[in-house]
Design goal:
Elements: H1 2-25, E1 29-32, E2 42-45, E3 48-49, E4 55-58, E5 65-69, E6 74-75, E7 90-100, E8 108-115, E9 144-150, E10 164-169, E11 176-179, E12 181-184, E13 189-192, E14 200-208, E15 213-220, E16 231-234, E17 244-253, E18 260-270, H2 291-322, H3 341-347, E19 356-360, E20 363-369, E21 376-383, H4 390-401, E22 411-417, E23 420-426, H5 433-438, H6 447-467, E24 482-484, E25 490-492, H7 499-502, E26 510-515, H8 521-526, H9 531-547, H10 563-572, H11 590-603, H12 614-622, H13 629-632, H14 642-649, E27 666-671, E28 688-691
Parallel strand pairs: 27-28
Antiparallel strand pairs: 1-18, 2-5, 3-4, 4-18, 5-17, 6-17, 7-14, 7-18, 8-9, 8-17, 9-10, 10-11, 12-13, 14-15, 15-16, 19-20, 20-21, 21-23, 22-23, 24-25, 26-27
Helix pairs in contact: 6-9, 6-12, 9-11, 10-11
The structure holds 2-acetamido-2-deoxy-beta-D-glucopyranose (NAG) (8 copies).
One 2-acetamido-2-deoxy-beta-D-glucopyranose binds at residues 46, 59-61.
Length: 693
């Protein structure tokens, strides 16, 4: 009994299943308002149904073709029982969306199709919309009717423009076509509608078989069905529609790089009456990050990458510029002595003012720390105009860097930039000697240290003049070029730098470089740097260390402007010790002090050949020989100064400005043979004074 009931159930269930299948296979009407998930559509090509039920016929890739057909044929039999014409009527309502992959993307298009077959294997894409190929286009044996929504204008298929709706019979050469638009019930006018605006568009197609009238109406999804169709045309479909026809959609993309995605969002069809309206709110949604936003994302990624590249490029160029150097082939051999600008830039924290140790006639000096060795360095930035003679100069500088003496500031290397030469020295903890001598904020140096410094500088000069492989003229000996290490030992710096100025500018003129008060008057006549000129400057140096004032001080009364005058007067009074630095408070070794002052006067002798050599000076200082008294007679003839010398032999235009002159100025004269020298301008601190022709 129980078994019989079970069998009955099974039988009933089988009958119901057969009935439901039969209903699906004999479609008179159907509606897909919630997607095509269970529609079992016949898909081919690129067509697919998304998990939300959305039907995609093509994605945005080029040359795609996709078809989707209702699974079973529709019965268009013109049975004798009913009026034959009426039997061909149908009504359909669907929602399409054509979503471009990018702003420039093109179609090709989508079509609603009623065809006698679902086999479109030989059909072409693009303008053939997946319906025909070139040879079959328009052949009456095709038996299809289509309404195309074409988004490209293509000449062979005779479309009217790139945004149109057309009626296709057996081919894509439209029977009739019209620009895409919809009739606005409110405005009572046609409003054009961009088919590939990416938004859902609702379409109504109604064919009245009796009147042989086809109406096609479309509107954006949020607009109710327009009262007037876009297209209303009489058409005889009896030759096209066979007894059983398949209904569905075909779409194809263009041949250009980026195309449109073609979607069907909902569909109803009816053979026996008006197709049910679709509930727009129930339709599956278009992908939010669909074709367009994928491209948008791609574009923004590309844009970001490009932007990043630009930033990196700019930073690279900026860095290149920032650390840009001048480097020539001949410099290869100086590799070890050559510093990269970047290293120096980092060492000096970008040449910050905080790192500034001082500035003189040759340029600014910055303190730095080499990151790789923690070594303290001083970087001198020397500006120079021309590249002329740079090779020679660098070679000299580098060879000077090989000089080793405990009383010389070591030159570690150099770097070149446009209009800039950077010289790297050992950093001297206590700075330059002049600050100790002339600035009140520094503690007074006692005589022991001063005498040590004098002896140290003398031995350095001896090394430069006599002991090193080549004769090196310093050309700018003065207290501000003597640096003090942590033990207050004096070290001579800046040797050879004056040479740089020899090479700047007019080769016709000779430039003399030195500092007023230290400058050998003889130089203005001959223009030739000599050992004796160094000795003149060394004499001025001796006096300033002993007396604690600058050799040239324009702020003093006339008879005291030049230190050598004061010392000379004291000496003629037989009281040379009166000239010494009052800050020593008499705490000095009289014998040493006298020796230093007298040596200072001897070296200041205007006659170069009467000045002692550095070798003699060292001997006197070390006490290995006594001062030659006879030479002291000549000191009486010492003219006050270089200015006096200059004014005797040359025209001085602007002496009054000498009062503005700070004593650490560098003076440079240009003179050409036979023309004499005129002192044209004297400017303030840190400038190089030029006297031209
Ligand atoms: C489109 O679909 C095809 C396969 O049908 C695939 O190869 C292609 O990568 C897809 N293109 C995009 C843009 O998703
Ligand atoms: C089509 O419809 C006619 C009459 O409406 C019917 O006689 C015929 O069997 C149907 N054909 C199919 C294949 O369903
Ligand atoms: C066009 O299609 C027909 C069948 O539909 C096929 O026989 C023919 O080879 C196709 N022609 C081309 C050029 O693909
Ligand atoms: C139309 O197609 C049929 C069958 O494919 C073919 O025999 C016929 O020649 C074609 N007609 C034209 C005009 O191409
Ligand atoms: C709207 O366009 C259709 C088709 O082009 C045309 O027949 C109709 O007259 C137009 N209606 C208005 C109000 O312009
Ligand atoms: C088709 O459109 C015409 C013109 O608006 C209208 O008169 C006719 O009733 C429409 N036919 C159908 C079946 O909607
Ligand atoms: C439609 O075409 C068929 C077949 O060619 C023909 O028999 C019928 O008379 C046509 N209808 C009208 C209204 O012309
Ligand atoms: C088809 O038309 C008939 C008659 O108007 C109607 O009852 C039925 O709901 C319609 N079906 C669809 C799916 O449109």
């Amino acid at each position: 009994m129980a078994a019989a009931v079970t069998y009955l159930h099974l039988w009933l269930f089988s009958c119901l299943a057969v009935i439901s299948i039969a209903q699906a296979q004999d479609p008179d009407h159907f509606i897909y308002n919630h997607g095509f998930g269970h529609a079992n559509l016949q898909l081919d090509g690129s067509a697919k149904v998304f998990s939300n039920g959305l039907l995609q016929l093509t994605n945005t890739s080029r040359l795609q073709i996709g078809h989707a057909f209702y699974p079973s044929p529709v019965n268009f039999t013109t049975s004798s029982s009913s009026t034959s014409a009426r039997a061909l009527s149908f009504s359909t309502n669907f929602v399409i969306a054509i979503v471009p992959g990018s702003k420039e993307a093109s179609g090709h298009g989508i079509a609603f199709v009623i065809a006698d077959s679902t086999d479109f294997r030989h059909a072409g894409g693009t303008q053939y919309l997946g319906l025909v190929n070139e040879s079959t286009n328009g052949n009456s044996s095709n038996h299809f009717f289509a309404v195309e929504f074409d988004t490209i204008f293509s000449i062979p298929t005779d479309n009217i423009d790139g945004n149109h709706v057309g009626i296709d019979l057996n081919g894509v050469k439209s029977y009739q076509s019209v620009a895409s638009a919809y009739f606005s019930n409110e405005d009572r006018k046609n409003i054009s509608l961009d088919l590939k605006n990416g938004q859902p568009i609702q379409v109504w197609i109604v064919y009245d078989g009796q009147q042989e009238l086809l109406n096609v109406t479309l509107a954006p999804e949020n607009i109710p069905k327009p009262n007037q169709p876009l297209l209303s045309t009489s058409i005889n479909l009896s030759d096209i529609l066979k007894d059983t026809m398949y209904v569905g959609f075909s779409a194809a993309t263009g041949s250009v790089l980026e195309s449109c995605s073609h979607y069907i969002m909902g569909w109803s069809f009816n053979r026996s009456g008006e197709a049910q309206s679709l509930d727009i709110s129930e339709l599956p949604e278009l992908p939010k990050n669909g074709g367009r936003s994928n491209t948008v994302r791609l574009i923004s990624i590309i844009a970001a990458v490009v932007l990043l590249l630009i930033i990196i490029g700019t930073a690279y160029v900026y860095r290149r510029k920032k650390y840009e150097e001048v480097k020539e082939d001949w410099e290869k051999e100086y590799g070890p002595q050559r510093f990269s600008y970047k290293t120096l830039y980092i060492a000096t924290k970008g040449f910050k003012d905080k790192q500034l140790l001082g500035s003189g006639g040759f340029g600014k000096v910055y303190k730095g720390t080499l990151s790789y060795s923690n070594e303290q360095i001083a970087v001198k930035k020397v500006s120079h105009e021309s590249n002329q003679g740079m090779k020679e100069f660098v070679s000299e500088i580098v060879s000077m860097g090989r000089l080793r003496h405990k009383n010389l500031v070591r030159l570690l290397g150099y770097c070149r930039r446009k209009k800039e030469l950077l010289l790297v020295y050992d950093h001297m903890e206590n700075g330059s000697l002049d600050k100790f001598l002339f600035n009140d904020d520094k503690p007074t140096l006692n005589w022991f240290h001063r005498f040590q410094i004098i002896k140290g500088v003398a031995s350095a000069l001896l090394y430069l003049h006599e002991d090193s492989e080549q004769v090196v003229l310093h050309r700018d000996i003065k207290a501000s070029n003597v640096l003090l290490d942590s033990d207050l030992n004096g070290r001579l710096g800046d040797f050879g730098l004056a040479r740089l100025y020899d090479r700047d500018g007019d080769p016709q003129t000779t430039r003399l470089v030195g500092t007023l008060g230290y400058l050998d008057p003889e130089l203005t006549r001959t223009g030739k740097a000599t050992k004796t000129a160094d000795m003149f400057a060394f004499g001025a140096f001796l006096l300033e260390v002993a007396c604690g004032r600058k050799p040239f001080d324009p702020n003093k009364p006339p008879q005291e402007i030049f230190l050598v005058d004061i010392v000379k007067r004291c000496w003629t009074r037989d009281a040379i010790i009166d000239a010494i630095d009052p800050r020593l408070h008499g705490n000095h070794v009289a014998e040493e002090m006298e020796k230093v002052l007298k040596l200072g006067l001897l070296c200041s002798n205007p006659k170069p050949d009467l000045r002692p050599t550095i070798k003699e000076v060292v001997q006197y200082l070390e006490g290995n020989s006594s001062l030659p008294d006879i030479l002291l007679d000549t000191v009486q003839n010492i003219p006050s100064s270089i200015l006096e010398t200059l004014s005797q032999s040359t025209e001085v235009n602007n002496v009054s400005t000498a009062n503005n002159l700070a004593s650490d100025c560098i003076i440079s004269f240009s003179s050409s043979a036979g023309q004499g020298v005129s002192l044209n301008s004297l400017s303030s601190t840190n400038s190089v004074l030029h006297t031209g022709r």
